[in-house]
Amino acid sequence: MSIEIANESGIETATDPILAVARYALDEMGINPLAELSILLVEVEYMAELNNRWMGGDGPTDVLAFPMDEMTVDRGPGAASDQAEPALLGDIVLCPEVAAKQAVTAGHSTDDELHMLTVHGVLHLLGYDHAEPEEEKEMFALQAKLLSGWRASRDNA
């Protein structure tokens, strides 16, 4: 799994666990191990600009996902796929400053918030959404399952 990460947020952030949780989620979802993903951590002003330009939102948000090959994700050997090469999944953009504020409200660490947002972004890249109540229920249950599994595997290592 090729996952590139760049921290342009100006905030010291542990990127290895973000890479690890993204890799875990993609592995658990059966994504081809040669698939590519990019994760970018940005400052508040840039996140607000992206949110406005691409989502029509006002102000910064916590995570944005920009899928590339959403409809042709190669789920690895043995899975039905009409594409011969591994997918370029897309980009996940995280804003650590927004995540830090949300973490306080949620009662957990900024790192925990960033891990959750990373899994959330991965699921969006894979076509999951939460616009409708049933979609939200499915996506958030899967998100919780993936985070729980990753935490358990990390704690047992």
Give a brief rundown of this model:
By secondary structure, this protein is of the alpha/beta class. 49% of the residues lie in helices and 15% in strands.
Order of helices and strands: EHEHEEHHH
- The CATH architecture would be 3-Layer(aba) Sandwich
> What's the CATH superfamily, by name?
Metalloproteases ("zincins"), catalytic domain
Question: What is the CATH third-level topology name?
Answer: Collagenase (Catalytic Domain)
* Distance between the ends: 20 Å
Given helix and strand content, the structural type is alpha/beta
The averaged pLDDT comes out at 91
Largest beta-sheet characterization? 4 strands, mixed
Number of strands: 4
Going across the major beta sheet, what is the strand order?
1-2-4-3
Q: How large is the radius of gyration?
A: 15 Å
Q: What is the number of helical segments per DSSP (H or I, 4+ residues)?
A: 5
How much strand content do the residues show? Answer: 15-25%
Give an account of the 3D structure.
This protein is an alpha/beta fold. The chain has one domain (2-156): 3-Layer(aba) Sandwich (Collagenase (Catalytic Domain)). 49% of the residues lie in helices and 15% in strands. The protein has helices at residues 15-28, 44-55, 96-106, 110-125, 133-156; strands at residues 2-7, 36-41, 63-67, 88-94. Strands 1-2-4-3 form a 4-stranded mixed sheet, with helices on both faces. Strand 1 (2-7), helix 1 and strand 2 (36-41) form a beta-alpha-beta unit. Helix 1 (15-28) packs parallel to helix 4 (110-125), helix 3 (96-106) crosses helix 4 (110-125) and helix 4 crosses helix 5. It starts with a strand and ends with a helix. Mean pLDDT is 91; it is low at 70-74 and 80-84.
